Amino acid sequence: MKVIIRLLVYTCAVLITSWLLPGITIENFITAIMVAIALAIINTFIRPILIFLTIPVTIVTLGFFLLVINALIIMLIGRIIPGFIVDGFWWALLFSVILSIIASLFGTSSTTIVRHHDHEEPTNRF
Predict the structure, then answer these.
(1) Strand (E) positions, the chain?
(2) What is the block-wise mean pLDDT of the chain (126 residues), using blocks of 10 residues?
(3) Computed from CA positions of residues 119, 99, 52, 85, in that sequence, does the dihedral angle turn out positive or negative?
């Protein structure tokens, strides 16, 4: 149940961000859910690999290359998900920055959607 709530909260963050930016278009709520799911999957499984492969560039740019990775992920999702239109790299970059700010205000992120256990209760087994 927590996964569904996190997904809906992140979907709202995606919708709010697209509403704020004229260069990002989302056709409907179902498209926003698909974008949120795609972001969760890509940020959980593919983004860490991309970060690992680009460590030298990230170090040289003092971490700013991570913004480029985020924008490229948004552009990739724009090509994969029908109804999610990104007008260019700079809109994708701005979308990723604003989305992370709005999602943090809601207390969620794309990687927390797929977590299995938030806080495990300690068990007393004596």
Answers:
(1) 24-26, 84-86
(2) 85 93 95 94 92 95 94 96 96 94 80 56 56
(3) positive
